[in-house]
Amino acid sequence: MVAFLASAEADYITGQNYIIDGGRWLGPKT
Q1: How many domains does the chain have?
Q2: Tell me, what's the pLDDT at 3?
Q3: Dihedral of the alpha carbons of 23, 16, 12, 7, in degrees to the nearest 10
Q4: Please, which residues bridge with residue 20 across strands?
Q5: Regions of the chain with pLDDT less than 70
């Protein structure tokens, strides 16, 4: 997942939250 998010293919993804192992969120805190 990290490799995908760091790649150019993920350039169009904005403002999304992703569930990472352990239930932590990668994204802005609300």
Answers
A1: 1
A2: 75
A3: -20
A4: 24
A5: 1-2, 4-5, 9-30
Output the CA–CA distances (angstroms, integers) from residue 9 to 5, 13, 21, 23, 24, in the order listed: 8, 9, 22, 25, 23
Tokens 């990472």 belong to 20
Cβ proximity of 18 and 26 under 8 Å: yes
* Residue 16 DSSP SS3: coil
For residue 17, the 8-state DSSP code is: -
Using DSSP's 3-state secondary structure scheme, residue 11 falls into coil
Give the structural domain span for 8. Answer: 1-30
The whole-number pLDDT of residue 13 equals 64
